[in-house]
Design goal:
Blueprint lengths: L1 H6 L7 E5 L11 E5 L5 H11 L3 E4 L6 H6 L1 H22 L2 E5 L23 H15 L4 E6 L2 E2 L10 H9 L5 E4 L3 E2 L2 E2 H14 L4 E4 L5 E2 H11 L7 E4 L19 H5 L8 H10 L1 H6 L1
Parallel strand pairs: 1-2, 3-4, 4-5, 5-10, 6-9, 7-12
Antiparallel strand pairs: 8-11
Helix pairs in contact: 2-4, 4-5, 6-8, 8-10
Length: 290
């Protein structure tokens, strides 16, 4: 997500991005990087004092439902306490705030979901993302909540992989890739999610937005389409039901979105899966050269 935000930003913006990990990121022409743990409250106060951000896009946090379920205390400290740390800084320095939530806040039984539908998480990750939303809603600053659905696109080498990059990694080695055929959504290309966020900022249309692609399909159908577009063996993509992976927590069955607000307020026409994957494929060389 962070990669797409930076790559799709207007040249007018000066960006300061924070990260955590055992690696070093080189500053770009208009982007500076700082290694800083979201739990380091005083570190962020110092950073805000130095940079004085007009807008903060909060993408940091545990993104794996399975890690969250196995590491509840750590996940709470990062995703909830960490969010509160950032909100406190935004209030102190009068920065606008954009919280990145998730489709995981829904139970998956009443799709397609609008922004007004009641959240009802079925796993700890969804509960935690909803707690983050509550922190954002209580903030005494201008705020937006963006709920991306299942995202795909090229990630930096040090970032968490997504369903498509994981599948490509396996299929390129001629290994079987098992994927759920009973979990549905409308997958979202990361670059379109970034475009939606920048549009919120540019037009100052803060609020709650469910952001997704155009096509509703199972993750199995999605990965199989991707395999075909990338010229890989589609027979290696094998459908399974939830419960096949014993160590994975239950996912909501169908969290597909009603994307009327994305179209009517943000003025974005959601990409089809085929279009998004073809754009992703066209950038393969640039990814390898980076």
């Amino acid at each position: 997500m962070g990669k797409s935000l930076i790559e799709n930003a207007n040249n007018f913006y000066e960006i300061l991005a924070t990260y955590i990990g055992n690696y070093y990121v080189v500053d770009g022409a208009r982007t500076r990087y700082r290694k800083l743990d979201i739990k380091d409250r005083e570190g962020y106060v110092c950073l805000f004092e130095e940079f004085q951000p007009e807008v903060v896009i909060h993408t940091a946090g545990v993104g794996s439902p399975d890690f969250a379920d196995k590491n509840k205390i750590e996940t709470w400290e990062i995703n909830v306490v960490g969010t509160q740390n950032i909100v406190d800084c935004c209030e102190r320095f009068n920065s606008k705030f954009i919280y990145i939530s998730s489709n995981g806040i829904y139970d998956g039984e009443n799709a397609p979901y609008t922004e007004e539908d009641n959240p009802l998480p079925i796993n700890y990750y969804g509960q935690i993302k909803l707690e983050g939303e509550k922190v954002a809603k209580k903030a005494k600053i201008t705020c937006a909540i963006v709920r991306p659905i299942l995202m795909y696109g090229w990630n930096n080498a040090f970032e968490r992989m997504n369903i498509i990059t994981l599948a490509l990694q396996k299929l390129e080695k001629n290994e079987v890739f098992y994927v759920y055929e009973d979990v549905f959504c409308n997958p979202l290309f990361t670059e379109q999610c970034a475009e939606a966020i920048w549009r919120i900022i540019q037009k100052e249309i803060y609020g709650i937005y469910n952001i997704a692609g155009n096509d509703i399909l199972s993750t199995y159908q999605f990965v199989k389409i991707a395999a075909g577009i990338f010229g890989l063996d589609t027979t290696l993509v094998k459908p399974v039901q939830q419960g096949f992976f014993k160590d994975l927590v239950k996912r909501p069955r169908d969290t597909s979105y009603n994307i009327a607000k994305m179209k009517n307020i943000l003025g974005l026409e959601p990409l089809s899966v085929e279009t998004g994957l073809k754009i992703m494929k066209s950038k393969t060389k640039r990814k390898e050269d980076a």
